[in-house]
Amino acid sequence: MSAYLESDLRARARARLERHAAECADCTSVLGSLRYMLGRLHQAQPPDLGAEAPQIAAAVLRRLHEPVDR
Amino acid sequence: MNQSTGDPTRERSLVERARSGDEEAFATLVTENSARVYGALRRFGLDQQESEEVAQEVFLRAWRALPRFEARARFSTWIYRIAFNEAQRRLARRPAPAALSQADDDDAVAALPDAAGAGPQARTLEHEFQQTLQRALAQLPLDLRVAVVLRDIEGLSTEESAAVAGIRQAAFKSRLHRGRMQLRALLEPYLRLEQGA
């Protein structure tokens, strides 16, 4: 189903899945919810780093010449 | 979040300058990528404080490894690879969570009680979705979680995602599909409410 949603199926496999889905309510439902979820994930906002972003850069710069501690 | 953000030519120029020791150029790369690295670390399963600490480690490792960086690669993809390795290292120290990897879809749905309990107003908020997504991701096995995060949330291509995960594309696609199906099962109560709202 993932491959189908990414247009990554060969024509014959794609047609077979579509024929099956047309007759199978469960598969149609799964495909629909997968498609909706992927759309939602693509729009997801990243966890907010907020004011910490410049602080990470500043901390990294301060530490650039630290001896490597493995 | 999308991997396509950022100008590749400008990024290459900054990387070249950083490779020759230009700390200001490297600071620009850090500033421009820190939110992305932090976000990926949170999605991989680290908490806020861990993600801030590990993000620093990621960039310090990148700085030290810059002489070995292959110029044809994207810096932003390479940095994901380092972040993934660091997250794996950190998560490996934790006690194993209750395994969901063997659970069937019904168990997975039952494991997410808060999603179905979202209030009628709150469920429309992006913030609510973020929290629900974060809880659901945390229940996926790490290899499946990373596949979904890289491909579907961070927006890397299949080729880039497989390279970050260190596996072949065919194996990555298999992981991605299993991850999507498990996540769908976990999120379904929430998404059903949202679609019906």
Keywords:
heterodimer, A: 70 residues, 67% helix, 0% strand, elongated, B: 197 residues, mainly alpha, Rna Polymerase Sigma Factor, Chain: A, globular
How would you characterize the overall build of this protein?
The complex is a heterodimer of chains A (70) and B (197). The longest helix of chain A has 18 residues, at 25-42. Chain A has 70 residues and is mainly α. Chain A has helices at residues 2-5, 11-23, 25-42, 52-63. Chain A is built from four helices and no strands. Chain A has one domain. Chain B has ten helices and no strands. Helix content of chain B is 72%, strand content 0%. The relative contact order of chain B is 0.13. Chain B has 197 residues and is mostly helical. The longest helix of chain B is centred in the C-terminal third of the chain and has 28 residues, at 169-196. Chain B has one domain (3-196): RNA polymerase sigma factor, region 2, helix turn helix motif (Rna Polymerase Sigma Factor, Chain: A). The two termini of chain B are 25 Å apart. Chain A binds chain B through residues 1-3, 8, 30, 33-34, 36-38, 40-42, 44-47, 49, 52-54, 56-57, 59-61, 63-64, 66, 68, and chain B through 1, 23, 26-27, 30-31, 34-36, 38-39, 42-43, 51-52, 55-56, 59-60, 63-64, 126, 129-130, 133-134, 148, 152-153, 155, 173, 176-177, 180-181, 183-184, 187-188, 191-192, 194-195.
**How would a textbook summarize the main sheet of chain B?**
none
> What's the total number of strands of chain A?
0
CATH level-4 homologous superfamily of chain B = RNA polymerase sigma factor, region 2, helix turn helix motif
Order of helices and strands of chain A: HHHH
Main structural class of chain B: mainly alpha
The quaternary structure here is heterodimer
Query: What is the average per-residue confidence, as pLDDT of chain A, rounded to a whole number?
Result: 83
The largest β sheet of chain A comes out as: none
Terminal CA distance of chain B reads 25 Å
Strand content of chain B: under 5%
Radius of gyration of chain B: 18 Å
Helix content of chain B: over 70%
CATH class of chain B: Mainly Alpha
Strand-residue fraction of chain A? under 5%
Query: What is the radius of gyration of chain A computed over CA atoms, rounded to a whole number of angstroms?
Result: 23 Å
Q: Please indicate the count of domains of chain A.
A: 1
**CATH fold name of chain B:** Rna Polymerase Sigma Factor, Chain: A
- Biggest interface pair, counts: A-B, 30 and 43 residues
